[in-house]
Amino acid sequence: MAQGRERVLEDAAARGVVVRIVERPKANSLHEAATLLGLEPSGIVKTLVVKRHDGDFLFALVPGGRKISWAKLRTLVGVNKLSLPDASLALDATGYERGTITPFGSTTAWPVFADSEVAGRMVAMGAGEHGYSAFVDGDALIAAFGATVADITDPE
């Protein structure tokens, strides 16, 4: 299997999405990471793997400084129970380690749910490998995965 960054770029290209991967030093906080990348903290998007009660998963795209609103996401997905799996399950579900997860190049194409703040801006997200970030247009990201866009977060 290709390395994480290669999987991201191959999948993005196949979807017609321009992704720019940059090397970045380790940051000790969201604000430090945002400064290093030249973004507002909300421009860094975490891709969280969420486990459904039926054993399937979904991706939740969460802007920096925000957290999943479990009530909002459960209502949107139409289920009573969602949870964050442990790191090994997330790796099994996506082929990526925590901190590198992205829907691009995931070993399984899980449904994508994006917070409405992802739209209309350039964002940085996991690039499949530690020490790298992938820059992508939020609207192109949403379109590439047919993501469901809604208010699914609350302030941290």
Strand tally? 10
Report mean pLDDT, rounded to a whole number.
Answer: 96
Distance between the termini: 36 Å
Oligomer: single chain
Low-pLDDT ranges:
none
Q: How many domains in all?
A: 1
Principal-axes shape call = globular
Main sheet: which strands, in order across? 5-2-3-6-9
- Give the helix tally: 5
State the helical fraction: 25-40%
CATH topology: YbaK protein
CATH superfamily: YbaK/aminoacyl-tRNA synthetase-associated domain
Please tell me about this protein's structure.
The protein has 156 residues and is α+β, with helices and mostly antiparallel strands. The protein has one domain: YbaK protein (Alpha-Beta Complex). 28% of the residues lie in helices and 29% in strands. The protein contains 5 helices and 10 strands. The chain has helices at residues 4-14, 30-37, 70-77, 87-94, 138-145, and strands at residues 20-23, 45-52, 57-63, 66-68, 82-83, 112-115, 122-126, 132-137, 148-150, 153-155. The chain has a 5-stranded mixed beta sheet with strand order 5-2-3-6-9, with helices on both faces. It has a 3-stranded antiparallel beta sheet with strand order 1-8-7. The longest helix is centred in the first third of the chain and has 11 residues, at 4-14. The chain is globular and about 40 Å long. It starts with a helix and ends with a strand. The mean pLDDT is 96.
For the structure shown, list the relevant keywords.
156 residues, alpha+beta, YbaK protein, five-stranded mixed beta sheet, three-stranded antiparallel beta sheet, globular
